[in-house]
Design brief:
53% helix; 5 helices; globular; Muramoyl-pentapeptide Carboxypeptidase, domain 2; four-stranded antiparallel beta sheet; alpha+beta
Length: 158
């Protein structure tokens, strides 16, 4: 329980610190999102390496996505992804109806414009994990109502 609170506080402070620095002329907002995504990418690579060291190899892409939605998500966010959809052509949509990093914000629409700041790290986390499993991807996030969000994963064929 304490580790979850620490993670939420650390994440919140990372986002606030980067955007505060950008306001004081030490960067620009687009770079803040890129920095957060890059941090998440590195953390995702490390976590996947750690979580899969005693796991059998995955059969296919769908098995990897199921692992991300169940085991990986549960370890990081203490719950599974609520819904996984695919078009079976390399696009997956992961839906979390009560995303932990957004629950600290109001459920109203007034903070909807700030939500992307809080999703960049997680996009990187997913992309980094997939990268370490041999899947190159593009991960984007969208929020239509707080605290629910969707992560769209587009697999890039090599």
């Amino acid at each position: 329980m304490a580790d979850e609170a620490l993670f939420l506080l650390l994440h919140s402070e990372m986002v606030a610190g980067l955007y505060r620095a950008a306001e004081h002329g030490e960067g620009e907002n687009g770079r803040c999102t890129t920095k957060l995504e890059s941090m998440g990418f590195r953390v995702g690579q490390g976590l996947i390496e750690r979580f899969t060291k005693d796991t059998a190899r995955f059969k296919d892409e769908l098995d990897i996505m199921k692992f991300i939605c169940k085991d990986f998500w549960t370890t990081v966010f203490k719950k599974q992804i609520d819904n996984l959809r695919t078009n079976h052509q390399g696009i997956y949509v992961l839906q979390d109806n009560k995303f932990r990093l957004l629950t600290q914000m109001s459920a109203g629409k007034q903070y909807l414009e700030h939500a992307p700041k809080y999703l960049a790290f997680t996009c990187g986390l997913i992309r980094g994990g997939l990268s370490n499993l041999g899947i190159k991807s593009i991960v984007t996030a969208e929020v239509s109502s707080m605290p629910a969000c969707k992560f769209q994963v587009m697999i890039q064929k090599m």
